[in-house]
Design brief:
Elements: E1 3-4, H1 26-29, E2 30-31, E3 40-46, H2 49-53, H3 63-72, E4 82-89, H4 94-110, E5 114-119, H5 124-139, E6 148-153, H6 171-181, E7 187-193, H7 200-208, E8 212-215, H8 221-232, E9 237-243, H9 265-282, E10 285-292, H10 303-320
Helix pairs in contact: 3-10, 4-5, 5-6, 8-9, 9-10
Amino acid sequence: MMLEPTDPALWQGREDIEDGTAGYRWHQKVQFTAPIESGVALLGLASDLGVTRNKGRAGASQGPAALRRAMANQAWHAAKPLFDAGSVTVDTHLAAGQQVYADEVSRLLKQGHFVLGLGGGHEIGWASYQGVRQWVDSASAAGAPNTIGIVNFDAHFDLRQPAPDTSSGTPFRQVAEHCQQIDQPFNYACIGIAETSNTRALFDVATAHQVAYTTDLNSNNETIQPLLRNFLNDVDYLYVTICLDVLPAAIAPGVSAPAAFGIAPHVIVDTLHWLAEQCQQTGTRWVMADIAELSPPFDIDHRTAKLAARLAFEIVQCIAK
């Protein structure tokens, strides 16, 4: 299992040559060899195994390619290089694929890039965390700040107990257990939890681990911002993950587990920009984000891919400030 380069044919779009470089779109900015200057590095985890183990609809392994196609024609506004580092494809060995992905995340962070992960199922969460943790541990001297915070936009806590295998439903339980092993706090906040999709057992696990969360019914600026303001006080490095099943099924049908209610996209976008501002004020380093659970076989009119691409656009705008 290894990192594979991206097919450049995925990056196609309109060209406004009359506008020069001011008219560039993502497909005209993307590079396939690492730039000297640090920028935004895209990294895919093409995986269905976690979703199928979690009894979800297969198809997420096609997500990274579909997301690249959807991002390609967006206008480019950031004054940073864009680097497509390729994808790791998972077959029957989930943990091995996650480790290859994590090693690449760590390597890209060492090069100074902001990493934007492209899923794939939400098993990308454990892989992304491992990569950030690996980089933080290698970069931090003894006693240096090294606390990682995770903000997850998701209808599910993803705190399931492996039964017996890990899956797209277990990543943040894996993180919690790892934090306990290395004597680190488990700083985890979840925005958009659906009570209908999380059993009492999962709420009990969330309470036991002091997870900060809002439900889909009360996710707005008035509830999210105070919760995350307190959360960021204890965080040195930030990793943000977006599970597309947090969005209403009417606008995001192409996911492994469609939401009956969900939260509006502008809630996510508002929170992303607010997080970027708060990180500047508190000194927290936002180093990574990923987008998970895009499942193209169920995506009507590419709605979910287009929305995921717009969220990727907003993330890049946030970190480019």
